[in-house]
């Protein structure tokens, strides 16, 4: 396990490599790629807005959905 930054390092570069590959093969157009980028950006913005406005969980729920056995 590592930090989120370590786990996602190079992710943007890999996406760019695949985008360029698909463009070169004619599988994807610039317009389609730009539309996908805009759709992803909007989805991320929506998720962030939802997370920022969601109520904090109740303290008794802090350990829900963990993998550790109760002691």
Question: What does this protein look like?
Answer:
The chain is elongated and about 55 Å long. With 71 residues, the protein is mostly helical. The model has no long low-confidence stretch (mean pLDDT 85). It contains three helices and no strands. The two termini are 24 Å apart.
Break the fold down into its secondary structure elements and pairings.
Blueprint: H1 4-8, H2 11-25, H3 30-53
Summarize the structure in short.
With 71 residues, this protein is mostly helical. The protein has helices at residues 4-8, 11-25, 30-53.
Sheet with the most strands?
A: none
How confident is the prediction overall: mean pLDDT? Answer: 85
Coarse structural class: mainly alpha
C-alpha-based Rg, rounded: 19 Å
Instruction: Sum up the overall morphology in one term.
Output: elongated
Number of helices: 3
**What is the terminal-to-terminal distance?**
24 Å
